[in-house]
Amino acid sequence: MKNLIFLLINKLIKKLRLYSVRNTHVGKYVKINSGTQIVGGFIDDYSYCGYDCNFLNVEIGKFCCISDNVIIGGSSHPMHFVSMSSVFLSHKDSSQIKLGNLDYLPKDKTLIGHDVWIGNRVIIKSGVKVGTGAVIGAGSVVTKDIPDYAVVAGNPAKIIRYRFDEEMIYQLLASKWWELSEANLRKLSPYVDDPIKFLKEVDL
To answer: What is the set of active-site residues?
Structure first.
């Protein structure tokens, strides 16, 4: 009984926390859970984001499933400068003092395709492109682009396999099913578990 009460209180506290979204477009039916911070982003329709994520300059497609504690994008430091410290840079940051006024603030956009599944505690480097339909295993560190429908895992993340064969991937991408209307998607929903039948119905 004590464990159940603890779990309920813990869940309530988790839910009561707020999330922070700045300079970000949020599409319809998007769910953002508490503790998450998103700055300079774009999250398209039907996607959801778990707890305690941190996104900076990221564009996320439709129908994406993002777990908890995921970090996407972020700032970098000037390794080619004498010092990498932000105290010598002009932009506002967490430094308590400024000793210089040098200009350095790269904003590489990170792109996440449609229908991407990102596991718990994944880190995706800024500027990376994750293809449509890709799967990123829990705890992975993504430093390079990921092809469409690839399943990757590890640090650094490497391709384990593909969800479908080349022909099926080509047809799914060509169908652009994520752009269909809500009404059409409801009609097609009984076939989501059968890609071949689904594609035949899309062509009708």
So the answer is: 77
